[in-house]
């Protein structure tokens, strides 16, 4: 019997599909997806809470071994099929139940968007307030009060969540080339420059070195099983893998692009952005005597307090929140593209209709996450608010489960011939050693490592 994967995808009658137009376009779009609130919000507070440099070291190992492997695998599935998630599984494994892996990707995209747009809305609001100068108080407690009264209001955060969704929807509506590629190509350099300016400011503060030591001096006594789990989970979230974003983007990558080196460049740059964000934050936090382990509130309480108390603080605060808003938007674009491409390609909906329906669905579901800090603050399901539930279910269950499915699909359903053909561009690239290392990882290392996190999240194994 022919292996599923040997049945070539039938792309002949299909109408020409939009895709990314250049190497730079591919990097910009995928990096735009990877760089997000994960770098500027999750990464710094998790590093702060879990032992600084020691956590950073473990994170780098996880992202290099597991995150990168899954990213390459998603690229292979998407590009080989020439179809977004769901469609890709239907083409590569026709008649099987594998398309359900794609369906669960779409569910994950909705859940992530539901809480991600809440935080993105807060960031948009803070960027706006910082630019208009209304985010400056004299007493530290006032920042706490301001954040509590903003998130405790039912309407204002919803308004900003919808603005964030509308901006994302507009980019998606413009298409893969004119929307996703063009916007990420324009905005990523802006983000990078703003981040570097914030770094220079932070590093020139008196007392900056304590923050640097915190970020770069490893203390391995802090490393436990749980730290490793957190780092592995973060590496998935960071690289946007485990739920079909990169499968979908992979389907827009043309046959001449080098998949392994693209993924490696994105992983390297994404990690660099996380570290640069850490450099912008920690020296300032230490210089002004704040605690580095403030948790999720680091971004909305500590940062405004710290930045406002330094020279030129208002300017840098505005820059910092604008760059965070840019980062969040690139990530939301990639998340929204998952249901939209599915509705367009599999259900044959016009793009505007697919975009409008997805935005509306996310706005409805997402409003329950946004209201978790106000009207619905006492409403819990499985002991969690809707915000925490969406975050937990997607990051701790759906992403790792999706990651395992992807690793199994590539290494057990696709033939080795297909994997090597995709990863070497039909033998044109001389990267056989790398491909062999990747193959070992996708077949053994990555699925085993992910299975352990998943079992732990489900409470079946205790680390
Ligand atoms: N990587 C993004 C961040 O760091 C978030 C993100 C975008 C994501 N697309 C994703 C996470 C897909 C998981 C899956 O903020």
From the N-terminal CA to the C-terminal CA, the straight-line distance is 42 Å
Beta-strand proportion: under 5%
Q: Considering DSSP H and I runs of 4 or more, what fraction of the residues is helical? A: over 70%
As an assembly, this protein is single chain
What does this structure look like?
The structure is a single chain. This protein has 463 residues and is mainly α. Helix content is 72%, strand content 0%. Helix 1 crosses helix 8 (176-203) and helix 5 packs across helix 16. It is globular, with a radius of gyration of 22 Å. The mean pLDDT is 90. Residues 33-34, 36-39, 112, 237-238, 240, 243, 245, 331, 334-335, 399 line the site of tryptophan (TRP).
Any descriptors?
single chain; 463 residues; mainly alpha; Amino acid/polyamine transporter I; 18 helices; 72% helix; binds tryptophan
Summarize the SSE layout with pairings.
Blueprint lengths: L22 H12 L2 H13 L3 H29 L5 H6 L6 H33 L8 H13 L2 H19 L2 H28 L4 H9 L8 H14 L6 H6 L8 H29 L14 H7 L4 H33 L5 H20 L15 H28 L2 H8 L8 H26 L6
Helix pairs in contact: 1-8, 1-12, 1-14, 2-10, 2-12, 3-10, 3-12, 3-16, 3-17, 3-18, 5-7, 5-14, 5-15, 5-16, 7-8, 7-14, 7-15, 8-12, 8-14, 9-12, 10-16, 13-14, 14-15, 15-16, 16-18
């Amino acid at each position: 019997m022919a292996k599923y994967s040997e049945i070539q995808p039938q792309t002949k009658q299909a109408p020409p599909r939009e895709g990314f137009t250049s190497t730079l376009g591919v990097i910009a779009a995928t990096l735009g997806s990877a760089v997000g609130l994960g770098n500027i919000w999750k990464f710094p507070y998790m590093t702060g809470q879990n032992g600084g440099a020691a956590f950073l070291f473990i994170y780098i190992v996880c992202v290099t071994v597991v995150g990168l492997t899954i990213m390459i695998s998603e690229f292979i599935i998407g590009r080989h099929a020439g179809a977004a998630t769901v469609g890709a599984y239907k083409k590569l494994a026709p008649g099987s139940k594998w398309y359900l892996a794609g369906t669960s990707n779409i569910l994950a995209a909705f859940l992530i968007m539901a809480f991600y747009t809440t935080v993105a809305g807060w960031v948009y609001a803070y960027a706006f307030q910082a630019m208009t100068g209304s985010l400056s108080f004299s007493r530290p407690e006032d920042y706490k009060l301001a954040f509590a009264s903003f998130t405790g209001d039912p309407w204002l955060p919803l308004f900003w969540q919808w603005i964030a969704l509308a901006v994302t929807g507009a980019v998606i509506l413009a298409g893969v080339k004119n929307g996703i590629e063009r916007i990420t190509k324009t905005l990523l350099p802006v983000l990078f420059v703003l981040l570097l300016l914030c770094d220079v400011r932070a590093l020139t503060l008196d007392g900056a070195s304590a923050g640097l030591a915190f970020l770069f001096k490893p203390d391995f006594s802090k490393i436990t099983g749980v730290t490793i789990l957190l780092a592995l989970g973060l590496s998935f979230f960071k690289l946007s893998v485990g739920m079909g974003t990169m499968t979908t983007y992979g389907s827009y990558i043309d046959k001449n692009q080098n998949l392994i080196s693209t993924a490696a460049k994105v992983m390297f740059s994404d990690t660099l952005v996380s570290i640069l964000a850490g450099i912008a934050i920690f020296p300032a936090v230490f210089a002004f005597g704040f605690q580095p382990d403030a948790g999720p509130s680091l971004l909305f309480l500590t940062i405004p307090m710290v930045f406002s108390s330094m020279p030129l603080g208002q300017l840098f605060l505005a820059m910092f929140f604008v760059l965070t808003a840019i980062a969040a938007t690139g990530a939301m674009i990639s998340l929204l593209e998952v249901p939209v491409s599915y509705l367009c390609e599999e259900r044959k909906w016009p793009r505007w209709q697919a975009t409008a329906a997805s935005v509306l669905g996310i706005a409805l579901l997402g409003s329950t996450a946004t209201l978790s800090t106000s009207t619905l603050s006492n409403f819990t399901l499985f002991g969690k608010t809707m915000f925490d539930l969406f975050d937990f279910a997607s990051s701790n269950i759906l992403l790792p489960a999706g990651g395992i499915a992807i690793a199994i699909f590539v290494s057990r359903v696709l033939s080795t011939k297909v994997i090597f053909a995709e990863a070497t561009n039909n033998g044109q690239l001389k990267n056989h050693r790398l491909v062999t290392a990747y193959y070992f990882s996708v077949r053994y290392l990555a699925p085993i490592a992910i299975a352990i996190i998943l079992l732990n999240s489900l409470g079946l194994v205790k680390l």
